[in-house]
Amino acid sequence: MKNMLNWFEIAASDFDRAQKFYETIFGFTMQTMNMEVKMAFFPYDEGKVSGAICAGPDYKPSADGSLIYLNANPDLNEVLSKMEAAGGKVLLAKRQISPDYGYMALFLDSEGNRMALHSNK
User: Fold this and answer.
1) Looking at domain 7-119, does it have CATH number 3.10.180.10?
2) Which of 25, 62, 69, 99 is the most buried (most CB within 10 A)?
3) In 3D, which of 26, 63, 25 has the Cα closest to residue 44?
4) What is the pTM of this model?
């Protein structure tokens, strides 16, 4: 087994607001699809882990569930600097995990999901 994480889904109660939030803080455009639920996909390289924002009757945002670390390389301060204006809230400012593992921060997204960022610098 090469990697335990295969796919993630972030719950949204207001799909458009959530999509705008993530597009704003990361500076990319998400592709959307309506299947049984609405989905907006994070960018990915073929064969690499990725995920989507999802909205539907079974998706409930939560600050108490699993914690997903999103890649904010090269420096997560660039993402944190856009957080409040985009409708999020920084819960834990950038701090070093260790010299070998880089840095992390915690935030609440526009939907109330507790999320994390990771970067090498």
Assistant:
1) yes
2) 25
3) 26
4) 0.93
Listed residue (121, 1, 113) closest to 68, CA to CA: 113
**CB contact burial 23-53 (16+ within 10 A = b; e otherwise):** ebbbeeebeeeeeebbbbebeeeeeeeebbb
The pLDDT value recorded for residue 1 is 56
CB 105 within 8 A of CB 88: no
Walk across the sheet containing 102-108 and list its strands.
69-71, 114-119, 102-108, 89-98
For the segment 39-52, the average pLDDT, to the nearest whole number, is 94
Task: For the chain, state the CA radius of gyration.
Answer: 14
